[in-house]
Amino acid sequence: MKTFHIKNDPNQNSEIIDLRNLILENSIELKNENSLNELVEKIGEAKYVLLGEASHGTHEYYVWRAQISKILIEKKGFSFIAVEGDWPDCYRLNRYVKKYPNSGETAEEVLHAFNRWPTWMWANWEMVALAEWLREFNEKLPQKNKIGFYGLDVYSLWESFESIIEYLDKKDLKTKQTAVKAFKCFEPYNRGEGQEYARATQMIPSLCENDVIELLSKIRMNAPSYNTDPEAVMSVEQNAQIIVNAERYYRAMIKASAESWNIRDRHMVYTLNNLMKFHGPKAKGIIWEHNTHIGDARATDMVAEGMINVGQIVNQEHNEDEVYSVGFGSYQGTVIAGREWGDVMQIMKVPEAVKHSWEYELHQLNAKDRIIFMNHNMKKKIGDKKFGHRAIGVVYRPKYEFLGNYVPSKMPYRYNSFIYIDETSALHPLHINPNVRQLPETYPFGV
User: Fold this and answer.
1) A Pfam family this protein belongs to (predicted)?
2) pLDDT tens profile 79-135
């Protein structure tokens, strides 16, 4: 690795100069696809590669994650990509990339049907390109070896009910009655994000809990007799588990505690484990989620709030060489987000990072895109020093980001590597400009 040095500046103290030299000595410039070779080498034989993002609406994060994923699939034999998305929607895309019958004519058509807010997270041109690449790559593989695409999240209560009832209508009419009964328990409550149901559980704490547990139990008991493709059976079981965990999530949501967050992240790990089991003993998974999910929570102030996350759990459950996480971030640019939940999506300006944040310090290194390797040397010399590390959600107010968009983080302990892009641009949602019929010209690599 090439070594760089920063010239001494009388206006900077020696600690900051030492920090910046340390980062330079343990990083490489991110210039093009070939720059990823060293990162892939560091990933080694890991079975779990967690790829983050500092926002849910940034073009470059999706592009680089897609390129890393392609290389891992082609050169390292990875089995699937699992994302911070809803299972039913992502499962439809999974069937498209595997070319199941009646799975859609184009990736644009399938992704355009992703209609739960925030739609832009997966209904975007960047994902269209990746999905078409996956479908083409899968053409030459036998069905059992095709690369999958799945959603890890817990939010799809209503869609999972619909998927189960539709499936059981053809395969198991008796269990369908149980599903309809459970569905009717939720029916009086608005199809939103579960707030009405959550409020109702304050009066009756286990309102629909027994109904959804009964449904899951019956589906698991009867699944071996379902005469259909194994992936469809796995999917109906997964939808039943989502309903159980969504009900738990909504009950916990009404309390001012970390429990709802923890239920959600435990569910995502449960789903990931199921996918690894389904794909067999040699399975390898690529996980796409926000930095706040894939970066180890123990290296942040999340731990003081009693919060855990996917990165922490996966690291605790597996050997060090089996897990590799990559965080992402930028200094400034634009992003797609809403000013409140359910608001119209819009392109917003991402202001320059606050002084002495992680992104600010990286910007001082000649404003170059780079990959930083969080090796033993970085851990030894930075130690427990915490940096403010920017995190932008689907709800974003740039004017006030300094009040709550920076997570104090021990960076070398939060990720194995970090990809820094000095200036980023907004994602390209399908629903903003549905008449476009080609990818943005800025899209690199032909992904």
Assistant:
1) Erythro_esteras
2) 999 999 999 999 999 999 999 999 999 999 999 999 899 999 999 999 999 999 999
Q: Which of 399, 386, 390 is nearest to 420 (CA)?
A: 390
Task: Extract the tokens encoding 342.
Answer: 């359910």
Amino acid at 141: L
- pLDDT tens, residue by residue, 125-182: 999 999 999 999 999 999 999 999 999 999 999 999 999 999 999 999 999 999 999 9
Q: Give burial (CB, 10 Å; 0-12/13-18/19+) of 355.
A: exposed
Residue count (the chain): 447
Assess contact for 338 and 328: CB atoms under 8 A. Answer: no
> In 29-124, which residue ranges form alpha helices assigned H by DSSP?
37-43, 59-76, 87-97, 107-112
User: What whole-number distance in Å separates Cα of residue 298 and Cα of residue 310?
Assistant: 11
Residue 193 to residue 200: CA distance in whole angstroms: 14
Who's near 244: CB < 8 A, 6+ residues apart? 212, 213, 215, 216
Q: Which residues of 206-234 are buried (b: 16+ CB within 10 A; e: fewer)?
A: ebbbebbbbbbebbeebbeebeeeebebb
For residues 367 and 360, what is the distance between their CA atoms, to the nearest angstrom? Answer: 10
Which tokens belong to 217? 């139990």
Give the distance from CA 290 to its chain's centroid.
5
Report the CATH superfamily, name and number, of domain 14-84+285-424.
EreA-like (biosynthetic domain) (3.40.1660.10)
Digit-coded pLDDT (tens) for 390-422? 999 999 999 999 899 999 999 999 999 999 999
- H or E, element range at 81: strand 80-83
Q: Is residue 445 a contact partner of residue 68, using CB atoms and an 8 Å limit?
A: no
**DSSP E strands, 246-291:** 285-288
- What residue spans define the domains of the chain? 14-84+285-424, 157-258
Which phi and psi (to 5°) does residue 194 adopt?
90, 5
pLDDT tens digit string along 293-344?
Answer: 999 999 999 999 999 999 999 999 999 999 999 999 999 999 999 999 999 9
